[in-house]
Amino acid sequence: MTLAAFNQLETAEAVEYVRPCADIPRWIEAVVTSRPYSNVEEVLSVAGTRAVDWTPDEVDGALGHHPRIGERASGSSAEAGMSRAEQAGVDASDDGLESELLAGNREYEERFGRIFLIRAAGRTGREILDELRRRLRNTDEDEAREVARQLREIALLRLEGILRS
Q: Which of 154, 157, 159, 165 is nearest to 63 (CA)?
């Protein structure tokens, strides 16, 4: 979608384009109601600024739309398609990696009570596994900040992808 087309969408339609980036209603509203934008960088600046103050509850709510690392998202939703593309670096044919990610996901969920979220785009499966292991040593507070940061990175990459497609 071009930026010009995004700027011209009805509010409800624009919301549906932004929602797959991060399903945080307050953030979506800020991104949509700040239109029109003069360039994609301006959209990303507004989106990034408005994502800094996401609450832990908002982040946890948005995590419900993300599959576990190493699991392929099913369905035809925009979120599922984005997730599949982002996790392309996780080699599904590497049984050792798959089992290590599964075990790491389980340990992470037991430790922190949420799924492990990472910006997978541009990372290999081994890099993701190394990050998972590193983050298991985080304090609860550090990990909450890390999850929010990762969600922001994902949201901005997704938004940029929508506006530059």
A: 154
Neighbouring residues of 9: CB distance < 8 A, sequence distance ≥ 6:
17
Q: At residue 5, does pLDDT exceed 80?
A: yes
User: Among all chains, which residue has been given the structure tokens 């369905």?
Assistant: 75
Q: What pLDDT does 75 receive?
A: 57
What is the dihedral sign for C-alpha 13, 80, 142, 159?
negative
Taking only the tens place, the pLDDT of each residue in 64-83 is 877 777 666 555 556 545 55
Amino acid at position 74, single letter: S
Instruction: Measure the CA–CA gap between 116 and 131, rounded to whole angstroms.
Output: 10
**What per-residue confidence (pLDDT) applies to 116?**
95
The answer to whether the beta carbons of residues 104 and 132 sit under 8 Å apart is yes
Q: Hey, what amino acid is at 10?
A: E
DSSP three-state, residue 88: helix
Q: What are the DSSP calls for 68-120, one per residue? A: PTTSPPPSSSHHHHHHHHHGGGS-TT-HHHHHHHHHHHHHHHHHHSS------
Query: 3-163: CATH homologous superfamily?
Result: Oxo-4-hydroxy-4-carboxy-5-ureidoimidazoline decarboxylase (1.10.3330.10)
